Amino acid sequence: MISLTSIARIEASTIWRTRRVEVFDLPEGKVLVKGQRPLRGPWAHRALNLFARWAGVPYLKAVPVHGGARSQAIEVQRLQALRAVGLAVPQVHHVAPDYFAMSYLGSNDLARALREQGDQAYGLWLAAMEHLLAVHARGQYLSQCFARNIIVSSRFEGLIDFEDDPLEVMTLEQAQARDWLIFLQSTLWNLALEPDRLDAALRSLLERERESVRAVLRHAARRLAWLRHLPTNRNIWGKDFVSLQAVAAALVRHHRHTNESLSPENNDA
Q: Which candidate, 114, 128, 156, 126, places its Cα nearest to that of 243?
């Protein structure tokens, strides 16, 4: 918790009110203050939902971000739940009607590390996946498991951004598989590992994932396998689509190498 003096200093600032976030160096330590997000328009979500429905991958649908007090309440609850089971997320120090304050993990994220270091950031990439396994082993899930929301220094530091709750629109197993898909989609392009090394890493991690989650990933491999046959041209498709192609190719190779059948099953995910 933080003192009344520190709260008064936070509430006297106008920066977080206009920019949504602000870092304060308080006597209690560095904290990040986060104001509420306004409700966003539905258009980006509609495009993603259309693709998810057309491709038959319901766990890639958009998760509602409600904005305002509701999103703040979701984020505070998710941070407290994850921290309660020993996972590396910020500690919530203070909650007000229009903002909350949490511990500050740092400004460097895995996305930047991968852009600047490429495969030299391999150890950080592995450490992030190890923590993702720990999240799932404790019955938890993330919200936006993008590389930009994974804070690193010379080591893995923690996870941020929990303004939505995937369980509003999908099952726990789907949400956990979605974590893997988002993580891989946001890291493989800049990591640029050769296929053999990538495949070995995924085998060592995914063989420790729960079977119910691997079943959803098998479903994803079946439904997205066709993407790898399209030209991998970033100028035509854009980085996000080409990155999803790389994920599809990696999942197909993974399940073939581990003898996990990709033939159609009776029950879809």
A: 114
